[in-house]
Amino acid sequence: MMSQYLTCFKSALLIGLATFATYSSAVEYSVIDTAKSKITFSSKLMGSNLKGDFAKFNGKVSFNPDEPEKAKANLVVEIASFNAGGEELQDEAKGKDWFNTKNFPSANFVSDSVKNVGNGKLEIRGNLTLKGKSAPIVMVASYQAEGKQMVFDGGFQLLRLDFGLGAGNWADTSAVANEVPVKVHLVLNQK
User: Fold this and answer.
1) Which is nearest to 78 in space by CA: 97, 104, 96?
2) pLDDT in tens, 146-164
3) 147, CA 20 to 30 Å: which among 85, 97, 118, 153?
4) pLDDT tens, 88-146?
5) Is 34 helix (H, G, I), strand (E, B) or coil?
6) CATH code of the domain containing 136
7) Distance of CA 155 to CAs 1, 96, 137, 181, Å?
8) Would residue 86 count as lying in a domain?
């Protein structure tokens, strides 16, 4: 009788542990917490440092920390939410020579592949479409669970002339640097 009880108890315990293990490993993070997330950039403008951000963006993300290489991302940035310098600079940036927000209101990043490089770091490859032009980019990002959220910090180098940003006199890289470091701080909630 006691051996039957122990056998049933062990079976129930194993089923419970297997169910818990399956449940805990199936945690997916997919909801962007836009209040905590941000996309920032820096550049050189006529010898001075310029820092800014894009205040509005959204998208779809799918991330399971047990299978990071299966992650997917599709981010859409509202270009009119550009914020750097004063009002005059912001108006100029939204114009034809720069972002041309009337004809190209958003930028889009879609991941193609994710490589787990270890120690909580990923190499994310994808295409960025900006001002009607697409180019491949590689972003290196770290990720870390914080409570019930997953936090990503990554970055990539944008070459603005590849996207036709800065026409006419603005194409001169001694006036405005071609290299624009972009940083992405993304906070995801569980699905």
Assistant:
1) 104
2) 999 999 999 999 999 999 9
3) 118
4) 999 999 999 999 999 999 999 999 999 999 999 999 999 999 999 999 999 999 999 99
5) coil
6) 2.40.128.110
7) 63, 27, 10, 7
8) yes
The set of residues, in sequence order, having a beta carbon less than 8 Å from that of 191 and lying 6+ positions away, is: 28, 29, 30, 31
Q: Rounded to an integer, what distance in angstroms lies between the CA atom of residue 163 and that of residue 36?
A: 28
**Three-state DSSP class for 167?**
coil
117 and 154 Cβ atoms separated by less than 8 Å: no
Residues in contact with 6: Cβ distance below 8 Å, sequence separation at least 6, in sequence order: none
Count the residues in the chain: 191
Backbone angles phi, psi at 51, to 5 degrees: -120, 145
Count structural domains, the chain.
1
Query: In terms of residue numbers, what domain contains 111?
Result: 28-190
Tell me which residue of 34, 80, 71 sits closest to 186, measured CA to CA.
34
pTM across the whole model: 0.83
Give which of 112, 134, 133, 107 is closest to 123, Cα–Cα. 112
Three-point CA angle 35, 136, 129, nearest 5°? 55
